[in-house]
Amino acid sequence: MKRVILISAIGFLAMVGSGFGQMIGTGFDTKGSTGGFERSSDISAAVDSLYQTTNPANSSLGALAVTLKFGAPNDTVSNLHGRIDYGYVPAGAQYISANSAQYLAFQVYLPSSQNWPDSLQIDPYAMNNGNNGGGWDWKEQVYYAKDIPKDVWYPIVVPLRQIALTDTVGAGASKSNFYCGLPGSNGTFMLGIQIWPNKNYHNYTLYVDSVQLVGAASHVIGTGFDTKGSTGGFERSSDISAAVDSLYQTTNPAN
After folding, report:
1. pTM, full prediction
2. Are the C-beta atoms of 94 and 84 separated by less than 8 Å?
3. CA-based nearest residue to 95, from 189, 32, 217, 216
4. What residues form DSSP beta bridges with 139?
5. FRET label pair with 7: which of 39, 72, 167, 200, CA 20 to 30 Å apart?
6. CA-CA distance, 108 to 116, in Å (whole number)?
7. Closest C-alpha among 79, 85, 92 to residue 37
8. In contact, 16 and 105? CB cutoff 8 Å
9. Banded pLDDT at 52 (limits 50, 70, 90)
10. How many CA atoms lie within 13 A of 205 on its CB side?
11. What are phi and psi of 14, to 5 degrees?
12. In contact, 145 and 204? CB cutoff 8 Å
């Protein structure tokens, strides 16, 4: 069993490291773009701002900076925690399909120059849209700042497949099967990162990059080209096609 777990962990890290996944949002390399992510409309007191900036590990690339500003010592309510969402929740929430992915992954970067409290939680979450018969279903994975290596990009994940197989209600009916597109699913969920709790007055900047569905199934566009006579739905352009004499299905020149 330990060998299986080890292989699974190595496989996950390899997929994340190689970019084997479906990217979510527009990314953070374009100047001024937050990639579709916003401060939460309901729980965002601790998130002072978020903006596109240079990647702290590679200045030629971009990243999302999330500035955190917690309340005064012993403040237990107003600035206890904050959240960033993909889309402006609830009115502009973006619901995506899990597309049979194994994990929802975020890359986060914590600079060692900042005094990160050990107990600070930086938790990725996924939540369905309330239409699967089980009501709103929130799934949050807990990561403590003390366990996240500093000055490197580190993956924090929501294990979608694991949740789909183990989270049950009632007589074995899966409450979370939408996460992996299993039978009976509605296939969509919203996502983001929740940061909490910290009662000490201090400002931090968390960096986020490469939000993706790891192990998502690929989608072929059209009907493919293996069927004799099929062009897979592709046609010569109706307006700019003079140089295209013909297109047709044929045998693969390499196989």
Report:
1. 0.72
2. no
3. 189
4. 126
5. 167
6. 14
7. 85
8. yes
9. very high
10. 14
11. -65, -40
12. no
Tell me, what amino acid is at 209?
Answer: D
Contact 58, 49 (CB under 8 A): no
Class of residue 54 by CB neighbours under 10 A (exposed 0-12, middle 13-18, buried 19+): middle
Q: How many CA atoms lie within 13 A of 246 on its CB side?
A: 4
- Residue 90, preceding peptide bond in cis (omega within 30° of 0): yes
Residue owning tokens 């296939």: 187
Q: Which two tokens stand for residue 33?
A: 């773009």
pLDDT above 80 (res 17): no
The larger pLDDT score, comparing residue 117 to residue 147, is at: 147
Q: pLDDT band at residue 129, thresholds of 50, 70 and 90?
A: low
Backbone angles phi, psi at 66, to 5 degrees: -115, 110
Rg, Å, the chain Cα set:
22
Q: Which residues pair with 190 in a beta bridge?
A: 127
The closest alpha carbon to 86, from 25, 15, 166, belongs to 25
Cβ atoms of 190 and 199 closer than 8 Å: no
Instruction: Give the E-state strand segments of 40-171 in sequence order.
Output: 47-55, 58-69, 82-88, 92-93, 96-97, 103-109, 121-128, 138-140, 153-158, 168-169
Q: How far apart are CA 187 and CA 131, in angstroms?
A: 10
**Measured distance CA(108)–CA(243) in Å, rounded:** 48
Q: Interior CA angle at 24 toward 169 and 119, to 5°?
A: 65
For every residue of 139-190, DSSP letters joined together read: EE---BGGGSPSSSEEEEEE-HHHHHHH-EETTTEESSGGGGT-TT---EEE
Work out the pLDDT band at 9, boundaries 50, 70, 90. very low
Hey, what amino acid is at 121?
Q
